[in-house]
Amino acid sequence: MSETIRVYITDDHPIVRRGIKQLLSTEPGIDVIGEATNGLQAITDMDNLKPDLVLMDLVMPVMDGIETIRQIKAGHPEIQILVLTSFATDDKVFPAIKAGALGYLIKDTGPDELVRAIWQVHQGQLTLHPSIAQKLLKELTLTSEQPPSPDLLTEREVDVLKLIARGLSNQEIADTLVVSIATVYTHVSKILEKLHLASRTQAALYALREGLASLYDDENQE
Known about the structure:
Layout: E1 5-10, H1 14-25, E2 30-36, H2 39-49, E3 53-56, H3 65-75, E4 80-85, H4 90-99, E5 103-106, H5 111-122, E6 127-128, H6 130-142, H7 155-165, H8 170-177, H9 181-195, H10 200-209, H11 217-221
Parallel strand pairs: 1-2, 1-3, 3-4, 4-5, 5-6
């Protein structure tokens, strides 16, 4: 494949940015097109550079990562966000996912895992460090207000939800189900409305909680 992922790095530590750039410079199909030391600088660059994916630290001066994620997704919903941070606490994990991050890794992640996560998030797949996945699934399972049952969904809406959890885009879902993209948009809207969810990321997590999808589906299919 000739596809190239245009990656933008947002981290206030020069050593971290330099290390990531050096790592990714050796990877075919990945091009680091810019970097920022804080969220405000990153947001300013989005219009001009138009990256495919932003590697996002969470604790930064001027504007933190969570607010930056929120603003990037509001202005550029097509840009995917992969969090790479030292923090795995609830007050960082849940707001970052809710804001629209599709991946969440800890900075002790190995180089191969980071590269794999970049490709997965670029393809729309929910990608989480094992400790984060466990935390999120536990939270979803133990929440005092259980989300609505998937029985509320039609059979076709369940099909769409499973494909969302697999990381497929609306166009890919339309192609898979042989329906129009407008029909997919309608199904996605109905799914979010019925399950009281705010985003596709939350829908993917819901599918994991209900056993409709697995974090390891792709690995099992190899």
